Amino acid sequence: MSAVTTLDPPGPTVGQLLRGWRDRRRLSQMELALEADVSTRHLSFLETGRARPSRAMIIRLAEHLEVPLRERNDLLLAAGFAPAYPQTELDDGRMALVRDAVRRVLAGHDPYPALVVDRRWELLEANAGLALLLEGIDPAQLQPPVNALRLSLHPDGLAPRIANLAQWRAHILDRLARQVVATSDPQVASLLAELRAYPGDEPAPAAHELPGPEDVIVPLRLRHPSGELSLMSIVSTFGTPLDITVQELSIEAFFPADEHTAGVLRAAAGAPGA
């Protein structure tokens, strides 16, 4: 008996991928054609496979569609071109300037917490100030690789200490859902499904927990022996990345939202003025 060979089904064509990204961005063919300065007819031919895009055209359309660098490489590969964007390990010698910049930001933010994550929210580095947020967490949750969002919402993680868990959970899930739309990353989608399955105070914030007209941020409110702490966060990214690893780095820096929290953080670090 002869062996039966099974072939993997072919992946989507570059035209199908472009159409998918255009749909995610909620752009008509005419809108994208006008933005990218191509004819609607030509764009239609590219999406249906009646015309083959050049390498330059793929990159041009990807820029206007705000396609992440990782997925731009997928577009190029689907069209038969070599990837245009490298992915360099963070510990590579060529990334020394990036590592130095990140560590300067982390060190400069002490005594307030700050951490660095990749696109899938894996914790890469953190400053000493993060220790206060990790107090009381099950050590098993801190075994690498540590996912920052999982750590935040897991019942054995930070969740039991979050005073406004329903509100914070809704904020995290909304952030992650928007990231799924932006990147179409199946691992991020899987993480979102996992976090949605975690128990919370409520499936959605109660009416009294929804932001009011006087609110401008969603704070992270933590129970602490010295009294409730209130923190707000700012997420920073590199502005002109040409490497996938660099584009996918995010620095989340937490700031005290009141003087009590600032004093506790300074005291924990033994900082002047504590």
UniProtKB/TrEMBL annotation:
Stretches assigned to coiled coil: none
GO molecular function: DNA binding
InterPro entries: Cro/C1-type_HTH (IPR001387), Lambda_DNA-bd_dom_sf (IPR010982), MLTR_LBD (IPR041413)
HTH cro/C1-type domain: residues covered: 18-72
Cited Pfam families: HTH_31, MLTR_LBD
PANTHER family, per database record: BLL4672 PROTEIN-RELATED, BLL5781 PROTEIN
Name of this chain's protein: Helix-turn-helix transcriptional regulator
Originating organism: Baekduia soli
